[in-house]
Amino acid sequence: MRQPDIEIYLKDADHQAIAQWLGEALGPCSTWQQKGQTYKCQAGDIPVTWLPKAVGKWHSLLLESANTPWPDDLACAQAAYAALGVEVRCAPGSWEESESDEQADRWMRISDDGVEEITWRTG
Asked: Sheet holding 88-90: strands in order across?
């Protein structure tokens, strides 16, 4: 099932490199608009939110649409890693409020080591 939106976390990437990658994958990116710590743009017809250092050194990228080329966070994370060459993390599937903390700490890590499930305590 396609996720309603995509959220991944990237290490050591900046929003300009992200905009270039998204421009190639989704369509031209509008100029980033900064609101506080958050940056927003449109990539093609998809609203994009970039939050630097959302979790420690990790930056959050949120694609607010189900109409992306990727069916889920993991597929997007793998594409981001291939394009940008930085470690990427994402949830293993759609996350729900009702999940236990233990489930919420399960993450997928995409790096030079490949794809692996890790425990990442973000809270």
From this structure: 33-35, 38-43, 46-55, 58-63, 6-11, 88-90, 106-111, 114-119
Asked if 45 and 67 touch (Cβ cutoff 8 Å), the reply is yes
Q: In tens digits, what is the pLDDT along the chain, a chain of 123 residues?
A: 688 999 999 998 888 899 999 999 999 999 999 999 999 999 999 999 999 999 999 999 999 999 999 999 999 999 999 999 999 999 987 555 555 555 678 999 999 999 999 999 887
Spatial neighbors of 32 by CB under 8 A, at least 6 apart, are 15, 19, 39, 40, 41, 50
CB atoms within 10 A of CB 111: 15
Contact 29, 43 (CB under 8 A): yes
Distances (CA, A) of 68 to 12, 45, 102, 108: 23, 10, 29, 20
